[in-house]
Amino acid sequence: MDIPVQSSFKSIFRIWKVAVLWILMILAGFQIQAQNKSYPFKPGEKLTYNMKFGWFNIGEAVVWLDPEFHYPNGKSKPHYRVQFTVTTASWFKVFSRLRVCMESLVEARELQPLRSDRDMEGKGMIDIRHDYFSYADSVSVKAYIEDIDEWRYHRFPNGNVPIRDALSTYMWLRSRDKSQFARTVEVRTFFSNDLYEFKMLPGQSTTHKYDSRKVRALEFGLVFPEGEYFDKGKTGRVVMSDDRNRFPLRFEIDMTVGSFVFELDEVEYMD
């Protein structure tokens, strides 16, 4: 089977970074439920997904929420520590030996990021970044790119659509009530020194085969920004269980290099 990939591993590495962002966005927005204004995610929650590229199994992705709250830098407000990892299979040449580890400290009430760390490695290439967020009359991001020992500074005006990092966007979208997704939702996410904007489309009722049985489900779509990574008209698709858990059962990202597919494999709660 011919797989439409770019010839340079550097290009693949760059595209994979963007794919990681959209993976998180799709994971996030569709595990939502109202629980008397409390958040649906629970400390210690661990979601494991099998990953495919086209027809090929290429590894797994894990989203984990620390069981303990953190109080960084003497701050009185509690913060979540959330982690996202991707590990690819060594036999698959296109994405072999790619390892991704992302971690964020997210303020527990407003779900604003305080710090975001990312470590990506693959075939001798590394990308290590640390982003520090501050808030006043604007959103400021101080970014340190460790692998090239360089600081970069960004400032964005406040607006109706908040700016978050990838993992706090994940948590914020999950905190939304189901009724709030009856209309199109706009999202802005700072990732890898760029601001990404996309839209989530309203959900449609459907059924899905899961755990050897058909379950009620909802199907959503994402509209991605047209450009290097997404051709015009490219979208994402998510199927989530239509119950109190709202687990994403299957999601897809259609990029210029091909299609990524993720299937929920296991849900655990760790002490």
Structural commentary:
This protein has a 16-stranded mixed β-sheet that branches. Helix content is 11%, strand content 50%. It has helices at 9-28, 166-175, and strands spanning 45-53, 56-65, 79-88, 99-107, 113-122, 125-135, 138-145, 150-157, 163-164, 185-191, 194-200, 204-210, 213-223, 235-241, 248-255, 258-269. It is globular, with a radius of gyration of 18 Å.
Provide a quick synopsis of the model.
This protein has helices at residues 9-28, 166-175; strands spanning 45-53, 56-65, 79-88, 99-107, 113-122, 125-135, 138-145, 150-157, 163-164, 185-191, 194-200, 204-210, 213-223, 235-241, 248-255, 258-269.
Number of helices: 2
Distance between the termini: 44 Å
Please state the CA-atom Rg, rounded to the nearest Å.
18 Å
Report the sheet with the most strands, covering strand number, pairing sense and barrel closure. Answer: 16 strands, mixed
Low-confidence stretches: 1-7, 29-37
- Per the principal axes of the C-alpha atoms, what is the gross shape? globular
Which class of secondary structure composition applies to the elements?
mainly beta
Total number of strands: 16
- The chain-level mean pLDDT equals 79
SSE string: HEEEEEEEEEHEEEEEEE
Strand content: over 45%
What portion of residues is helical?
10-25%
